[in-house]
Amino acid sequence: MEFLDLLYLGFSEALSPTNLAFCLIGALLGTLIGVLPGIGPTATVAILLPITYFLPPLAALIMLAGIFYGAQYGGSTTAILVNLPGEASAVVTALDGHAMAKQGRAGAALATAALASFFAGTVATVALAFAGPVLSKFALSFGPAEYVALTVFGLLAATILASGSVIKAIGMVCLGLLLGMVGMDVSSGTTRLTFGSTDLYDGIDFVVIAVGLFGIAEIAVNLEQREARGSLAGKITRLWPTREDFRKAWPATLRGTALGTFLGVLPGGGATLSAFSAYSLEKKVSKTPEKFGTGLVEGVAAPEAANNAGAQSSFIPLLTLGIPSNSIMAMMLGAMMIHGITPGPSVITHQPALFWGLIASMWIGNVMLLVINLPLIGLWVRLLKVPYRLLFPAILLFCCVGVYSVNNRGFDVALVIIFGLLGYLFRKARCEPGPLLLGFVLGPLLETNLRRALLISQGDPAVLVDRPISAVLFAASAILLVMMVLPAFRKKREEAFQEEEA
């Protein structure tokens, strides 16, 4: 009964006119940036972070969440119609989706993608609703040692699941941890890594790093690349799959949903990893794996279900443990901190309206996306004709104005440009900026809890492995370290990421 009361509370919050409006804005923006190549959800959320200062907390989170899962819907539309994935998670959808479009089955492919996405989004939302309270009760027993172990495990897992070199990913995490130390030490009052600048006494603002590394750097990288333009594969006729399509698609949708929900919870997981993994799984279980890429409906249903499930289940560790599983969740955590909300198990108990309102909004957002996506296909395709050279000045101006408005400091704008250049150089060096952002966000949490644990034990480091939960997490971290060293694992990992890039 209590569960139904909490759900009622959530829907009453989500269905308020303000929150409904921001849910729709998030869903539409997400679809838009999913359609347009070169503007991903990570960059968009980073750019819009300054706006959240001026919004109610729940409305801000609803909008940012809508952008994330809305992008998964939008990315599939252009991937199927013009073979131009607007979002990384839609790359594998293009393989069979576009082939179906060339066969005159674009409508069936689009409907399959939309229905699979809706089903997976609904399941992941239900999983969050049930898992959230259970995990939060479990997390309430966490002490400083457990949080230290969890943070270490999360950072290590994120480095393994990040694309590119493991050494580079570890280096990026360490750089993020260093950047998180900039400013005045709360305990001693001494300044760290400020280089005599009074502007750095309060540390580097999260918004500055996010906008620089993901907003400005993204613009620079996209300007270098030649604009790709696709042409519509054929006329869209029947917007509904056949009975045979449904028969083949529903087992793939179930497998993709289950795999995406699981991978979304893992540190470093999310929509992209889930989509590629689901496609690989379908090829392995199929009796005719050689036919994938020729227009199989399973090749559309599985990755589309997985990327939506992965996107929404990645909220589980954030809302229950306060640990972000990927760079977008790190930005969601930043948005919560902007409003003075401490992510973790206390959110569910002390701010139930926020937690359950966000869950209810996710389901409402999925319904909105299902309704608005198919009728607006023509509009999304026409938007592809907008040249990127007309978009980037507006995006750049928005970044600078947004960052300046947070603290009214020109110093922050200068830092954004510096981090933008760094982000560009990182991409050139094939260093993924996601682990850096996770290191920056989790660094203060790691430092604070490590100090608390050592103060309690009077400097005895054995306190970190005294309790069973922390001991298990440290053991898991040790296993991850061993796996990093093993040549066989490294080879398999490289092969997996080569498949993704291909």
Describe this structure in words.
The chain is globular. It has helices at residues 2-14, 17-35, 41-48, 57-82, 91-102, 106-139, 144-161, 166-180, 206-224, 243-265, 271-285, 298-313, 315-321, 327-338, 345-350, 352-373, 377-383, 388-407, 410-428, 434-456, 468-485, 487-501, and strands at 183-184, 191-192. The protein has one domain (2-148, 200-408). The termini are far apart. The protein has a two-stranded antiparallel ribbon. Helix 2 (17-35) packs across helix 16 (352-373), helix 6 (106-139) runs parallel beside helix 13 and helix 18 (388-407) crosses helix 19. The chain is built from 22 helices and 2 strands. It is mainly α and 502 residues long.
Question: Top keywords for this entry?
Answer:
502 residues, mainly alpha, two-stranded antiparallel ribbon
Helix/strand-derived class?
A: mainly alpha
- How many beta-strand runs? 2
What is the gyration radius calculated from CA atoms? 22 Å
How many discrete domains? Answer: 1
Shape: globular
Kindly state the mean pLDDT as a whole number?
Answer: 80
Terminal CA distance: 50 Å
H-E string: HHHHHHHHEEHHHHHHHHHHHHHH
Largest sheet properties: 2 strands, antiparallel
Q: What layout of secondary structure does this protein have?
A:
Blueprint: H1 2-14, H2 17-35, H3 41-48, H4 57-82, H5 91-102, H6 106-139, H7 144-161, H8 166-180, E1 183-184, E2 191-192, H9 206-224, H10 243-265, H11 271-285, H12 298-313, H13 315-321, H14 327-338, H15 345-350, H16 352-373, H17 377-383, H18 388-407, H19 410-428, H20 434-456, H21 468-485, H22 487-501
